[in-house]
Here is the input.
Amino acid sequence: MPRTGRIAGQIIAYGLFAAGLGYFSNAPVYTWLDPGFALINLSFSHAGQRKEECRRLTPAEIAATAPNMRQPLDCPRERVPVAAELVLDGISLLSKSYKPTGLARDGASSAYERIPVRPGQHQLTVRLRDSRRGDGFDYEENISINLRPRQNFVVDFRDNPGRFVFK
Amino acid sequence: MIHLKKILRTGFEYMEDVFDAAFGPAWNPFYQLGALGWFYYWIVISSGIYLYIFFDTGITDAYLSVEYLTHEQWYAGGVMRSLHRYASDALVIMMLMHLLREFAMDRFRSSRWFAWFTGIPMLWFVFSAGITGYWMVWDRLAQYIAIVTTGWLDTLPFFGESIARNFLSNADLSGRFFTLMVFLHIALPLLLLFIMWIHIHRHTQPKVNPPLGLAAGTLVMLLVVSLVKPAVSHAPADLGIVPAVIGLDWFYLPIYPLLDRYPGEAMWMVLGVITLLLLLLPWLPSGKQQAVAVIDLDNCNGCGRCVADCPFSAISLGPRSDNTGYEQEAVVDNRHCTSCGICVGACPTATPFRRRSGLTAGIELPELQISEVRDKTLAATGKLGGNDRILVFGCQHSMDLSALEDSRTGVVSMPCIGMLPPSFLDFVLSKNLADGVFLTGCRDGDCYFRLGIRWTDARICGERDPELRQRVPQQRIRTYWGGLTRSKQFLRELDAFRNGLNALATCNQNVPEPGQEGNGHKDIGNA
Ligand code: HEM
Ligand code: SF4
Ligand code: SF4
Here is the structure.
C-alpha cells in the first residue's frame, strides 16, 4: 500500500477505536427505573425471636454433659423468620418472609426490596412479624406519603424498641 | 472446540491482513495486544497519580475535587481524568481481545498454561479496579454502582451485616466507606501489576512495550478523545433520589443491568463457573503433550546459544555434570518447554554436514531428531527434477503444505521454522539437492512460538548465531510468512521465486554453482 494509503488506514483505525471508546464509556444510557416512578425501598436487618423457648435442664441431663459445658438452661439458637408486608392504598405490594442468616439460622433476617410505585399521595401500611406466632403481625404502621418522581422512600425497622423508620 | 478455534483464528487472520496493510507487521496492534495492555496500564497509573494529588476523600469533597479537576483545571486535570478513563477502557478491550486471540491461536496449552492461568485473575482485578474507580467520584453513577454492588455482595454468604444498608439514605452514609474505596482503588492496580509481571515470567524478551510508532499513535488517539469528549461526572449522588437513567461505562459495567434481571447468587455462580472453566481450559482438551527437548551431553559444549534463543526461558546453563573439559552444560526445565525446537535451530552441533554417521545435536526434540530432518530433506529432494527444484521448509502451525509436493517441489515441516539450523540451507544448496530453498511459517511479527521467525530472519541475515554462511547465494533463498490463511499470496511468492530460479539457470550460467566445496556425498549416503 502506498504511504498515504497506509497513513489514511491508520487514521481510520485509530478514529474508529477512539469513537468506540468515547461513545461506549458513557452511552447508551441505561434505565434503571422509569423516571416517571418513585421507589419504595424496604430494608431492614432484624433478628426474629428464638424458635423455641429456653428449657430448664433436668439434673440428670446436666450430669450427662461434660463438666466444663454445664449450664442450667438449654437455649436452641435457631430463630424464626421475619415476615413483612407492604400495602399501598389497600393493594398488597409485598408479603414475604425473610430467613435468618447464619449456618445455624441464628442471625438477623435481612430484607432489601426495591418496589417502583406511581408518585403522588398514598396511604402506606407496613407490617412486620418477628415472633413465634403463626399469623398476624407484631408491628404495624400506617402513614400517608406524598412521593415525588424518582424519590427513594426508605422503610427501615429499628430494634429497641421495635419501630418502623421512614426516610 | 478445535473448529471454534480454527474459525476464530481465520477471522483474526483476515482482520489482521487489513491491519498489516495499514500498519505493517511491525506495528500491527493485533500482534501487540499484550504490549498495548502494558502501555495502557502505564497511562492509567501516571494519570491516576496526577488525579490523586488533587483528589479529596469524603462524601461531598470527593465529588467537588473531581469537579475542580474536570472544569477549572480542564487543560491538565481534565485531560488526565479523560486519559485515565479512556486508557482504562482501552485496557479492557485489549485484554478481552488478547484472551480471545491467545485462545484462537492455541497458545495456552501444555507448558504454556502458565500465562493463560495467570491471565484469568487479571480479569477480576481489572474490572474491580474500574468499578472502585467509578465509585470514588460519588456522582449518580457511583450511587448506582454502590447500591447494585453492595446488594450483589450481600448475596454472598460471608458478610454478616448487610453492606447495602450503608447506602440506604444520606443519613446512613459514612466516610469510612470512601476511605476503603480509595484504598482498594490503589491496591487493586498494584496487585494487578504484580500479576502482570508474573504473567510474562516465562517469556524470554516479552513484548511489554509496543513499537514506538504504535505507542505514539495510541497516545495521540487517547489525547484526541480526551479533548473532543472529556470525561465528566454525572450530577452529585443523593441517596434520596433514584439515579433512574444513567450513562454506563459499558466496558466496565456490562453485567450491572443483568443484576437487575437475575438473582445475585446466580450471577456469582455464572461468573464463578466461567472463571473456573477458563482456568481449567489449558487442561480440558489437553491434547497430546509433545516430548520436551533433551540435552545430549556428548554433543553439548555449553555455548549457551540455545539459552539465548529459547522463547520460553526453558533452558539455563548449569555446571558440567560429566568429565569433559567444558565448564557448563545446557539444562532444560521440562515444565517450561513447549517442544518448539528453536533451541535445536540454535545449536551449532545441529549441522547436516557432520560426517559422523550418528548425527545428534547437543539438544534434540525426541519426536523429530535433527538426523530425521536431514533424512526428510534428502528424501524430499531426492524426488525432484529440473532446474527450478524448490525445497520448502515449513512449520506445523501454519498452512498445510502437503498439497504442494510435486516433481519440482519438496516439503519438510517441523514444529517451528526456528528449529531449522541455517546450515540446512547451505547443505541443500551446496550439495545441489535443490535449486532454491523457500522458508515459510506463521505471520511476520506473530510467530506461534513467539521468536521463531525473528531468529530465523536474523540467522539468515547473519545477525544472529548460528549465522548462515556467506557463501550461500541469497537469491536462492526466499522467505514468506503467511500463517494459516494467506495461501494465495504464498503460491504467488513461490511462483515468483521459481521464475527467479529459472532466470538464474538460463541467463546467469556464470554463477558459481554451489556444492564445490567438497563435502562428500558419501556422508549423505550414510545419514
Ligand atoms: C492486563 C491484562 C494483560 C496484559 C497486560 C497481558 C500482557 C501480556 C504480554 C505482554 C504477553 C507476552 C506476549 C509476548 O511477548 O509474546 C502476554 C502473553 C500471554 N497472555 Fe496476557 N496479558 C493480559 C491478560 C491476559 C488474559 C486475561 C489472558 C487470558 C486468560 C492472557 C493470556 C495470555 C497468554 C496465554 C499468553 C502467552 C502466549 C504465549 O505463550 O506465547 N493474558 N500477555
Ligand atoms: S523446544 Fe527448546 S527452545 Fe523450545 S521451549 Fe523447549 S527448550 Fe525452549
Ligand atoms: S546450543 Fe547446543 S551446544 Fe550450545 S549449550 Fe545449547 S545444547 Fe549445548
About this structure: The mean pLDDT of chain A is 91. The pocket of iron/sulfur cluster (ligand 2) is lined by residues B 292-293, 310, 312, 314-315, 332, 337-343 (CB under 6 Å). Chain A touches chain B at residues 1, 5-6, 9-10, 12-15, 17-18, 20-22, 24-35, 37-39, 41, 43, 45, 101-102, 107, 110, 112, 150-152, 154, 156, 167 (CB under 8 Å).
